[in-house]
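Lecture notes, structural biology module. Today: joint structure prediction for complexes of two components.
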Amino acid sequence: MKDLPKSPPELPAIDPERRRLLLGASALPLAAGAGLSLAPTRARAALKTSARIVIAGSGLAGVAAANRLARELDGAKITIVDRKEIHNYQPGYTLVATGVWPVEKVSDRNADLIPPGVEWVREMVAEFDAEKNAVVTDGGRRIEYDFLIVATGLHMDFGLIEGMDVAAIGRNGLASVYPSPQAAQATWQAMDTFRQKGGKALMTLPATPLKCAGAPLKMTFMVVDRLRQAGTRDQSQVSFHSALDNIFSVPRINQEVLERWKKLDVPVHFLSKLVAVDIGARRATFASPEGERTQHDYDFIHVVPPMRAPDSVKNSPLSWKQGPFAAGGWLEVDKETLRHRRFPNVFGIGDINGTGKGKTAATVKKSTPLVVQNLIDVIAGREPSQRFDGYTSCPLLVREGAALLIEFDYENRLIPSLPAIDPLQDSYFAWVMKIRLLKPAYMAVAKGRV
Amino acid sequence: MYEIWLTLNILYELGLQYLPVVIGTALLWLVLMAVAAARGRAGWGAALKPAIAVAVVVTAITFFITPGMTQSSFANMGYWVDWGNLLLYAAAFGAVGGALAWPLAAMMRRA
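The predicted structure, tokenised, for the full assembly:
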């Protein structure tokens, strides 16, 4: 470790109620009416340190952590490792894929989000040498650190679905919202074509942890709504195949969505895993846990890939070696401090974490300030002071013009930011939040301000 | 406090998205205020009523057109939270309309 300050300045504790995105957003019109103005930064005493901090990944978690650390540490050498030049607003993919947003709205330049003074290595981490406190890039560069933040995101295993070709999304009724803005746009093309005539739609869900686990549900609600708008719902069948025995991990939401789908005539097939797709023939193969295979023809299919940690994390000492997160190679962090359980100078943020909940931007928003504070605590020679409750949220689109505002924690408790918000109530406000307010909030998170 | 900070940040980012409109509106208001003040004998007090009337009209118009402009409709108003936010949103635009109308009305109603 590098030299640490002997008498670190007292650092302010982070407000434990930082899950109030919705509350803040609900006050937006009032604040606008009051004509309030904003200074983009807050004064805060910076901790002097010469620590070397490497951040693996430049998604929301990586850039938000970089911005906060750059502001809250004085003298630290911060390095962010990621090749991505384009920063994609992934929460907007479902809007693109359902024809609500143009694709241009989800892409920004990473260069605009990475703060000055932070070294940006435009390579990917290929290896985590955690025993020696170093990462090795795919360009062969070895970067040593005192502290590491793993924010690599996850890997989508389309390869586990036989016959699947991401490049074919948009043609032959093949859709998937997940891989990229282009795939989301192509998914809308496929959905738009499908809804003109209607037919048979297959919606899928794998058994692995997912980023934005609400996205497959949103896509299902929206394809039903688009068919209804086009007047082709009556001649169409929409069914949902879940590889699990549920469709959402929060029991109350699971029940609510299943009841809604029953009314919308969307049958659900449980323990039915998509294992193969014949794109040209428009035929999907599903397998039961016993290995029994069934084939279904389709006119439209929404493919959700199994997900896991990237190889660089999965094959490193940093991944879970036993327990439910070992198979996916997820990062072994304590679910409350988000500090690595075996390497105390390593923290994780975002999709990569092997925790029970939270592969969403909302989780990153809540957990990044917490991780940064815990890292500062450790740099200052203290124990981490902050605890994460697993907060995440999902504005669940139920049709064009309405959504549900769902917020929950590790314990599957529904925790609306405002008591007045009913998470099971179709809401125009939730819709407006999703399409107008969440991206500005996201950008503020990325810049390390909220 | 966090909610206020978050709200300000959302406003700030929204402002960045619509920067030309924000700057243009602010400049227009400043110019109108300056012109009204420079011409002298502006009836600021007497202009309040018409300015408020304009604000109410703008609020009403915004209230009715906003759902459609946000790819939704009144049919999607689920509960009072939706109505309350729509009303506040409309009132914010109404306030801007009123602010712009105030110097204009003051010039028309010189003391």
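Point to remember: The radius of gyration of chain B is 17 Å.
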